[in-house]
Amino acid sequence: MTTTTQTFSIPKEDIQAAIDSLSVQNRTMIRLLLLQYQNLEKEDIEYMATDQPDSRFMAGGQPTVKPSIGEAIREVGARAEQYRKLFRQKRERPSLQIECLKKQMALTDSAIRAAEGLLTDRFHVDPVTIKERKKAAISALPKPEIRRLNKAWDLDEISEEDYQTTRLLIEYQTLLRRKERQQRRLNFAQNEFEHSGLSPLQDHEIAHIWGIPLGSLSGRKVKAMHNYLTTLQSRLEAANAMPDPIEGRPDLWRETIRTLSQQPVERSVVSFIAGIERTEELLLEKLKTLAEGEMPEELESSFWQLIARIHDSEHSGPWSNHARSIFALQRLSATLSDLDPTLEEFEDTLLKIITPQAKGEALPAPEQQEKEVELGEQALGVLNAFIGEIDDKRSG
Q1: pLDDT value of residue 394
Q2: What is the DSSP code string of 309-366?
Q3: C-alpha 348 chain-centroid distance
Q4: Within a domain: residue 255?
Q5: In this structure, how many other beta carbons lie within 10 angstroms of the beta carbon of residue 116?
Q6: I need a labelling partner for 276 at 20 to 30 A (CA). Which of 22, 115, 129, 142 fits?
Q7: Which pLDDT band, with edges at 50, 70 and 90, does 2 fall under?
């Protein structure tokens, strides 16, 4: 049984050296399998273009010189770039989610500390009550409790200090639920990021880039992987980097991908695509509201799903599926980086939220209905001149 030791890892330099030492056919195949981390060289693209079978000569020998080799090189390069971009954005999207969520959780933690400080120092809430509220935060329903609290305030059944204390406890639970949602999203994004980094290109994808029949690919793939793994193992053994056989024989292919997945994620340059919102201004406004923690709890979850999920592209196939999400997450990350509130600013924000509305505060006056404007004799004359006067004989 093949096992992998927990302490074993392959140096990235050995991986690159083993790939570079292969023949052009085997090297091209390995780079295609690892296209998420490896760049195709000009020599690799030219080899694939010249290696494509000419459909006009399938029954006989292939011509030694192909007249359309320049066009074939451009097509192979374009397809390789499409898959390279797709697979790297597939990994970039959850990476950006992780980045944004860690920043959001840091802000939420600061807000929770500010709320706990106010409850303890200013409103003198005992630790038992805070602990009970914290335990019941996940299942708490804030809206009915806020309505009951506001009604009691309007009916003079509660003092201002008691109102603020209860309202702050509700807000404290809201922050705890926000932290719990963010932690769940972070766990999901981390799992997706790890899975996306361990997936090589599939056979049909390689055949599409290369422009060769799928049936002729498996033999080339087996040969290329065998030569690569043999070369890599020889290098590791020469450097005494292979683990003791008693501890188990490592899966060098899996460890190759694991090592390459540790390298930094390449950032894409994407532009706004309508879908999450109609315009870029509307999207940026919502992202700012989300970053500042001012988005209502019931809207926040659905909006996060919009900016984090894969968006199907009707006209461009799968090639732009991740672009909308990446654009939104890049802007959200930049907005979160600009936020650096102090603990006192968090406390001031919480105090504004829990301050009750002043009693007897004048309600806004209802909008008066506009009176119909009666036209004068001169205005009626001008109007009739435009529409034409009514023929009395015909109307009679």
Answers
A1: 46
A2: S---BTTTBGGGTTHHHHHHHHHHHHHHHH----HHHHHHHHHHHHPPPPTTPPPPPP
A3: 32
A4: no
A5: 17
A6: 142
A7: very low
Please report where in the chains the tokens 């690159």 appear, as a residue: 16
Per the CB < 8 A criterion, the answer to whether 182 and 108 are in contact is yes
Q: Are 91 and 189 in contact, with CB atoms under 8 Å apart?
A: no
CB 192 within 8 A of CB 92: no
CA–CA separation, 5 and 254 (whole Å): 12
CA distances for 150 relative to 5, 115, 119, 147, 351, angstroms: 61, 20, 20, 5, 16
Phi, psi of 42 (to 5 degrees): -60, -35
How far is it, in rounded angstroms, from Cα 395 to Cα 68?
A: 80
The model's pTM is 0.81
Residue 27 falls inside a structural domain: no
- Looking at the structure of the chain, the number of domains it has is 1
Residue 129 lies in a domain: yes
pLDDT digits over 150-197, tens only?
999 999 999 999 999 999 999 999 999 999 999 999 999 999 999 988
Structure tokens given for 53: 């079978």
Q: Which residue type does 115 have?
A: A
The residue type of 313 is S
Written as six digits, the tokens of 354 are 């829990």
Work out the mean pLDDT of the chain and round it to a whole number.
86
Q: Which domain holds residue 102?
A: 35-58+66-199+268-353
Contact 297, 174 (CB under 8 A): yes
Residue 367 forms part of a structural domain: no
Beta-carbon contacts of residue 102 (< 8 Å; ≥ 6 apart): 186
**Per-residue pLDDT tens over the stretch 69-118:** 888 899 999 999 999 999 999 999 999 999 999 999 999 999 999 999 99
Dist CA 119 CA 172 (whole Å): 9
Q: Report the amino acid identity of residue 255.
A: E
* pLDDT at 395 exceeding the cut of 50: no
Lowest mean pLDDT among 133-137, 278-282, 381-385: 381-385
